[in-house]
Amino acid sequence: MLLVALPVAGYLFFGEPVGLLQTAGGIEAAHIPIVTGLALYLNHRMLPKELQPSKIIFAGTAITGIFFGVFAVIYLLQLLGAIGTVGGSS
User: Fold this and answer.
1) Cβ of 68: how many Cβ atoms within 10 Å?
2) Is residue 59 in a domain?
3) Is 49 contained in some domain?
4) Please, are residues 74 and 83 in contact by the beta-carbon 8 Å criterion?
5) Is residue 18 included in any domain, yes or no?
6) Could you tell me the maximum CA-CA distance found in the chain, to the nearest angstrom?
7) Model-level pTM greater than 0.85?
């Protein structure tokens, strides 16, 4: 019942499928840096040295987390109206 009620409630709240996709994208953009940071921290602290990722993989993952973190901040600022949208209509 819950699996049916939540999507219906989300659709009724946001009204447009595009709005739902934008919301999901914003949540994902905010979620990825947190998961990335926690994964890097746990890999560094908990794994034995021989199982830890190489410095290149560690750096690539950190850069990815930072990229999505910047994207999440830009998206939040757009939602708050602090900055304009790129390519948006006026």
Assistant:
1) 19
2) yes
3) yes
4) yes
5) no
6) 55
7) no
